[in-house]
Every structure is written in C-alpha cells, then in structure tokens.
Amino acid sequence: MPNAQSPTVRHRRLARQLRQQREKAGLTMEGAAAALGWSRPKLLRFETAKTRPKPSDVEEILDLYGGHEAVKLALMQLARDIRKRGWWSAFNDVLTGSFAELEDDAITIRSWQVQFIPGLLQTSDYALALIRILTPEDSEDVLLRRLQARMARRAILERENAPSYAVVLDESVLRRAVGGAQVMVRQLEALVNASAKPNISIRVMPISVGEHAGMDGPFVALSFAGELDQDVVYLEGMGGEIYVEDVGQVARGNVRFDRICEQALSEEDSLALIVDIAREHQQPHEPPR
C-alpha cells in the first residue's frame, strides 16, 4: 500500500531549495544551524524533507541566507502549499501522490509512450483492461479503486488552467487491441476527440520509420510555471518510479522528445492513421487456420 506519510513533491521541492539557498550563501549546515540557534538535526530534517517547516521557519532561514525577496516569498508560499491536500489524497490507498501531484502542478506535459495509451487519455474500459492485467493479484474492489483514481486524473485536462499536453505514441500502441477490438475502437475514437482540444497534441511514430530517437523507452517530461520549479523527467517500470531532476539530464530528455517529434507523423497525418487503424479494428478477423 502506498505510504500516505511520504514527502509530497512540493515538500521535496522546498527541501531541495532550502539546501541550495544555504549553499549559495556559503554556509555549512553546522554554521547555519548555529546562526539560527537550532540544532543541526533540525535543519537537516528540513533539508531532507523529513520534517515540514512552517512558513515562519522558512522566513527565518532565508533572512539569514539573504538573496532576493521574491525567492523568500515564493518559498514561504511553498511551505504553506505543502499542507494542502490534492485530489489524489482521496486515493492514497491505491496510489502514491507524487506523479499525480507533478501532473497537477505542470503547465506542460510531454509524453512518449511505446506500450499503451497514457493514463490521461485512457477510456474507462481500456484502463480497466490494463489494470487487470498489470495487477492480477488485486481484489475486484481494489481494481475498481484504481480505475476511479485513473479516471479522476483526467480532470486536469478539462480544467480552466489545463496544462499543454503533447503525446507521441508508437504505432504499435494503436494496433494492440487492449480489452478487445471494440474497447480499442472506442479508445481510438476518444483519442480523435481529445486531439480536437486546443491544449492537446497527439502524434504517432509510424512503424515504417525504422530506428528512431525513442527506442530506449518511454518517458514523461514536465515543466512548471514557478521560476524556482525545476523541470522533471519521469520514468516508470517494474522496478518503480524514477524522477530525474538533474538539469543536464532533463535537458537531454527534452531534446530527445523534440527529436522524436521530428520523426513522428504530423498531427494531421497522425489523426488520419488513428482513424484508419480504428476501422481495421472494426473489421471481422478470420480465426487462424
């Protein structure tokens, strides 16, 4: 079961910024703690996201470190925000909030997928088929809770300040009949409808391309509005979730996505291919001889 007490994305972001601001000020942890009249463990807990600092703690820290007033105000607000509960907190029995929180905060999401339609664009039937095959040990009640969480995620694309969402799908994702032919037809129709929205871009990497820039696996690149918010590249696999925050590696991830887009079909041609493949799924298939 996910740990509801683990640090949130905002909490980890605040901890990282407090550490970076101390280092910019040229202070050791021991020196900063002494100047603040705190114990070293107290400051360490703030910088490692073990304890949530109060806005007044953040103000006291940044008054010592100096720097721009705007930075202090932004981090004090972040200290307030880490106590807010997002929609994902209602589903902490079946998911961790980290990626959902990133999605919720992002202004731009760029997703390269080679295995399945990304969660933000999945229909309920398609999502349930995936959840069943990937978590076969779960009870029916837990499966349905996972489905509810998956469907709740999609709301971010409908809100007034929805993020810009760019997706590139490998053609094989469209051809694999997850849940059966009719489920797949409805899923592809949903992609066509989604592509009409101004904040959503859907493109396809055709099999005919051969080798391409995305052959080392799927990833999601997320960008944020705040000046202090670093972009993140998200990777997911059987071993768990990986959040890449190193500036150089994130930059390489964004360049990789640009290269994938260069090799993919245009949005117009991608839409035509999705429609064609949906028709193919509707055709009756002869049983193998």
Structure commentary:
- By secondary structure, the protein is of the alpha/beta class.
- The protein has two domains: 9-81, lambda repressor-like DNA-binding domains (434 Repressor (Amino-terminal Domain), Orthogonal Bundle), CATH 1.10.260.40; 87-282, Endonuclease, Chain A, CATH 3.30.870.
- The chain has twelve helices and six strands.
- The protein starts with 8 loop residues before the first helix and ends in a 7-residue tail after the last helix.
Brief digest:
This protein has 289 residues and is of the alpha/beta class.
Structural category: alpha/beta
Task: Label the overall shape.
Answer: elongated
CATH class of the largest domain: Alpha Beta
In percent terms, what proportion of residues is strand? Answer: 5-15%
Give the end-to-end Cα distance, rounded to a whole number of Å. Answer: 46 Å
CATH topology of the largest domain, what is it called?
Endonuclease, Chain A
The number of distinct helices, counting runs of at least 4 residues, comes to: 12
Quickly count the domains.
2
Neighbour order of strands in the largest sheet: 3-2-1-4-5-6
Largest sheet geometry: 6 strands, mixed
Alpha carbon gyration radius: 22 Å
pLDDT < 50 stretches: 1-6
- Which architecture of the largest domain would the CATH scheme give at its second level? 2-Layer Sandwich
